[in-house]
Amino acid sequence: MKKAAILFLLACTLIFTTACLNKADKDKTESLLNPSSNDISEDSTASSDELTKTVESFLASSSSSAPSSSAAKNLPDQPAPPKGSKAVTLTFPEGFTLAQIGARLEAHNICKKANFIKSAQTYNFNYYPLVKAIPPSSKRAYKLEGYLYPDTYTMYTHMKPQDAVGKFLRNAEQHISGYRYSGMTTDQLVKLASVIERESNNSSDMKMVSSVFHNRLKKGQRLEADSTRDYCTHYLLKPNGPFSDSFKYYYNTYRCTALPAGPICNPGAAALNAAAHPASTDYLYFFTAKGKNYYQKTMAEHEKQLKKFGMG
Fold this sequence. Notes:
With about 300 residues, this protein is mostly helical. Among the domains are: about 100 residues, no CATH class; about 120 residues, no CATH class. It is built from 13 helices and four strands. Strands 1-2 form a two-stranded antiparallel ribbon. It has a two-stranded antiparallel ribbon with strand order 3-4. α4 packs across α5. The longest helix is centred in the N-terminal third of the chain and has 32 residues.
């Protein structure tokens, strides 16, 4: 009887201790996701850049969800490196386009840019759930633009181009699938994040820029993002790209309604998080001057501010 009582007390102690530890972990997570203004003192010795990188890294891991073990089992195994190949570590920054990624791969003798783009366009990657969920559309230029997740990768010289593409997609499955915004598909969220990525000077602006675009979408206004026009000029339309002039009506958000037909770059964690969690504002306009973003609620206010900076 005495032995049974001791065992019961030990079991209760173990349950209580586990609950306390779980609560502590939860409180720690909530404090990181929702820091109060009192959490950071003015005389903090950490630089703002270091703090931004730390927060972005946490958000990237917290806001995205890795595939379940069953989903991971359905993905193909990583192919063996080509015989006699050399391992090369390459970093692909947030906001790089498919064409820029291909150029960097070719510059390091991984595979030809043209072959990389062709594989991304024509190879059947539908065993990746994210790719399978991309809606087919004749108005979409580069199918996998937006899904080549920016990160540091170990590549190998003379890789098959489809194997190089697969490295990006495998990483994307772990980092993109977890982002959600009510009323938007994952593909729509990636499109919006790609525009936010290109329209923001730094990560602190991304949620503000996101709020402007969300507000415009809700009101049925065009996004009118310069970055989409630039994408058409430098990456899509002839002579700088392979596509016909008609694609400017699908991607240039001064011409097309709502979102572009496809992403305009490959967004990182901060832009994806901003697209899913915009700031709460009434702003409908913004512009950049001297490296800083300025936000306005009305066209009259917008035009007034532009004139003030000699941009009207």
